[in-house]
Structure formats: structure tokens, C-alpha cells
Amino acid sequence: MYWATKYYYHKVRTFVQNDPPTATAIGDLWIETDNKNKLYRASATGSANWVAVNDQSGISVFAQNSQPTGQNIGDLWFDTDDNKKQYRYDGSNWVAVDDTRIAGNASAITLLQSDSHCTTIIMKNTIAVGNSSCTYCGTTIN
Prior knowledge:
The structure is a single chain. This protein is α+β, with helices and mostly antiparallel strands. The chain has two domains: about 10-95, no CATH class; about 100-140, no CATH class. The protein is built from two helices and ten strands. The strands form three sheets. A four-stranded mixed sheet has the order 1-2-3-4, with no helix packed on it. A hairpin with a 5-residue loop joins strand 2 and strand 3.
């Protein structure tokens, strides 16, 4: 595949810390926790290319151990004593921002791995089975 050797895409990362991190991709976000959670966006890779985001939406970003008092729908909270787990305020509650496919995929992989008659290699959108006696039972992996 020609395109795979020519292009390499980085996922955007969010950093929640005091000091400027090293951006690995343009668009990375940094929440500066010792400056009222000021938000920055990386304009290039490295640690010297952070540009302040001029957010006029009124949405606040919190990075702290305890649950903040929600102000506006859409506010974000990074729980710093729970591996920086992310929450979004819905107007009355802090709701975890999770990709529900992760738990489903973990269950599907566990199910496939539990079949001792198979050797399974899982790639994006492909399941290659190393033993023809193995039966794929319709579990979907996203």
C-alpha cells in the first residue's frame, strides 16, 4: 500500500500539567494547571509551539482531584487522581466521557482468545484465524 509508506498520522493528545509538554502532533492540547487551566493548542511538534486558545464559548476546563461545581453545560473536568479521567457536565451531573466501543471490543477479544483451538491475529477490520477448526461466532470488533 503506497499511502501507508508515504503518510503517518498522529492522534491528537491532551496534556494536563503545569509545564509545557512536548507536542507529538499539530493540534495537541495542553491544559496549564497552574494558570487557571488555561488552554493551549500545538501549532507544531515540540515543546515551544503552544498557542493560547481564545475560547469565547464560556466553557470551563477543570483539572483537579475533587468534583468541581458545574457551571455550564459542556464544562470539562479531568480527574487528576483517577488517571486524568475526563468528564463532561450535562447541566446537573458530571458524566464520564468514554468511548463505549472500548469495553465492547475488550469483551470480543476476550471471547476470541478464550477459544483454545484458535490462534487469532486481530488487525483493523480483519480477523485472521490460524486454525481452520475455529469458528468465529459473530462478535463484532469496531
